[in-house]
UniProtKB/TrEMBL annotation:
The middle region has homology to RecA with ATPase motifs including the RadA KNRFG motif, while the C-terminus is homologous to Lon protease. The lineage of its organism: Bacteria, Bacillati, Actinomycetota, Actinomycetes, Micrococcales. Residues 353-457 are annotated as: Lon-protease-like. This is DNA repair protein RadA. One of its GO terms (molecular function) is ATP-dependent peptidase activity. Plays a role in repairing double-strand DNA breaks, probably involving stabilizing or processing branched DNA or blocked replication forks. DNA-dependent ATPase involved in processing of recombination intermediates, plays a role in repairing DNA breaks. Stimulates the branch migration of RecA-mediated strand transfer reactions, allowing the 3' invading strand to extend heteroduplex DNA faster. Binds ssDNA in the presence of ADP but not other nucleotides, has ATPase activity that is stimulated by ssDNA and various branched DNA structures, but inhibited by SSB. Does not have RecA's homology-searching function. It comes from Demequina lignilytica.
Length: 457
């Protein structure tokens, strides 16, 4: 009697995203990463897993208890804005950012606030000693008895602390420093990070415990470690900031419980980190008199309108190839607008050095700032300022036409709130619906915008 045998073929798996293949390839077919596909052992061929006994019967959706998923506010308004209202029981948040950006300071502040509200917070540090964290907590006023500090790097010890302390909130700083004795490899390696993350996420889900995992970032600014970790967690947040500026921005790259279009603003101070509910003053120069070469605009970061002031300086060049220097704006966009101004408006800048920057370290990369950028360049070339109290919104095409942009009504409303009296907007928007205590100047071309906003042009 012949017996059937199950054949097995070697399997290969991507260490970043988990994509599988029957043969080795140099580049992952899912995440397009190079050199991440490794042999995963035998992949037995045969029927799928058979059905087993049901442990928990399916529940009709209207009968599911929603009280267990109610959010708990963190007490930090800007963090609650990004999370969608606070921590959800059992939710795991991955907080990534460059070293020194303020991740640990923010988490200590959140831990202290949770302790003052009657909760117990377990703060696990694998990078800094207990003494270093104690000094930081003392500096920012976060010394609370209910904040339990554990300096551990072993996964088994961390899980034991969870059983012993029974906290209401857990913070792991950072996930790359925790290692499991059951897995070979150094802490921070692909296998270790995957195993540690899976164990901690399972512990958070089974206990209904909100947990924050701090993650490192790579040189290009993306979250370090295997991509599968981002798929397992519920929320992925990126903490950004320039080392030369106290401003910090918190963005949600993934959020299963809320929107990813919200941005939180923070400011580093001597006493720690503070929420900035209205960051408009950080991006405007507040000059008493109009200065040539400056023009404000209203950008949109996610769903949040933020003002930005673009500054330009034009000077005669002694070089055969005039210099073009930018800070906070897209250099290719500046080059395009220089060509449009030369060809469509007659503002010749080919023989001049051009310097373009933003105020307060703001990054303005969206096309909606094109009109303001063009006005700043034309104002600097003519050495005449843009009219006082004016702002500009609109995208400039290669033909010189001003095109509509998204959320124009929201931008105009923010300009009115900030005290601007006039706004240059694209001609194809409904100006009657946008007027709210502010004068609008619809323009169809960048030449028309320059003629309106710069006296004498």
């Amino acid at each position: 009697m012949a017996t059937s045998t199950r054949k097995s073929t070697p399997g290969y798996r991507c260490t970043e995203c988990g994509w599988t293949a029957v043969k080795w390839v140099g580049r992952c077919g899912e995440c397009q990463a190079w050199g991440t596909v490794v042999e995963a052992g035998a992949a037995p061929a045969g029927p799928a897993t058979k059905a087993t006994a049901v442990t928990t019967p399916a529940t009709p959706l209207p009968r599911v208890d929603a009280a267990a998923a109610r959010r708990t506010p963190t007490g930090v308004g800007e963090l609650d804005r990004v999370l969608g209202g606070g921590f959800v029981p059992g939710a795991v948040v991955l907080l990534a950012g460059e070293p020194g950006v303020g991740k640990s300071t923010l988490l200590l502040d959140v831990a202290a606030r949770a302790a003052r509200d009657g909760g117990t917070v377990l703060y696990v540090s694998g990078e800094e000693s207990a003494g270093q964290i104690r000094l930081r907590a003392e500096r920012i006023g976060a010394l609370e008895d209910q904040v339990l500090l554990a300096a551990e790097t072993d996964l088994g010890a961390v899980l034991a602390h969870l059983d012993q302390a029974a906290p209401s909130l857990v913070m792991i700083d950072s996930i790359q420093t925790i290692a499991s004795a059951q897995i070979d490899g150094t802490p921070g390696g692909v296998g270790q990070v995957r195993e540690v993350s899976s164990a901690l996420i399972q512990a958070a889900k089974t206990r209904g415990l909100p947990m924050v995992l701090v993650g490192h970032v790579t040189k290009d600014g993306s979250v370090a470690g295997p991509r599968i970790v981002e798929h397992l967690v519920d929320v992925v947040c990126q903490f950004e900031g320039d080392q030369h500026s106290p401003l910090r921005l918190l963005r949600a790259l993934k959020n299963r419980f809320g929107s990813v279009d919200e941005v939180g603003c923070f400011q580093l101070v001597d006493s720690g980190i503070e929420s900035v509910a209205d960051p408009s003053g950080l991006f405007l120069s507040h000059e008493s008199e109009p200065v040539p070469g400056t023009c404000p605009t209203i950008t949109l970061d996610g769903k949040r309108p933020l003002p930005a002031e673009i500054q330009a300086l034009v000077a005669p060049s002694a070089l055969s190839n005039p210099r073009r220097a930018t800070s906070g704006v897209d250099s290719s966009r500046v080059a395009m607008l220089l060509a449009v101004l030369h060809r469509r408006v007659g503002v010749a800048l080919a023989a001049d050095d051009v310097y373009v920057s933003t105020v307060g370290g703001a990054r303005v990369i969206e096309p909606a700032a094109d009109v303001a950028l063009a006005l700043a360049l034309a104002s600097a070339r003519a050495d005449r300022p843009v009219r006082a109290g004016w702002a500009a919104v609109g995208e400039v095409a290669l033909s010189g036409a001003v095109r509509p942009v998204a959320a124009t009504a929201q931008r105009v409303a923010e300009a009115a709130r900030l005290g601007f009296t006039d706004v240059v907007v694209p001609a194809k928007v409904d100006a009657g619906r946008l007027a709210a205590g502010i004068r609008l100047h619809p323009v169809g071309s960048v030449a028309e915008a320059v003629a309106l906003a710069i006296p004498g042009e």
